[in-house]
Amino acid sequence: MTQQEIYELYVLQSKNVRKLKKVESNLVRTINNYLKKNDTFQVELNTKLYALVYCTLSEAQFIQIVNTPDGFLDTEIEKIKLEKSKNGLIKAWELLFDMAFDKVNVNWKSDIDLTARKNELQKIIDTYIKIPSELRNKIAHGQWDYALNRENTALNKIKTQELKSLTVVQIKIWSEIHQFLGLIVRDLIQSPKNGFHNNYWVDLVKLQQFIIDSNSWTMNKRIKTLRPVKQVKTCAYHNGISINVTDETTGAELKGVLLSVNDKTSLSDIDGVAEIIKIKQGTYNATVSLDGYVSQTLKVLIEIGTLVELDVKLAKV
Question: pTM of the prediction?
Answer without folding.
Answer: 0.69
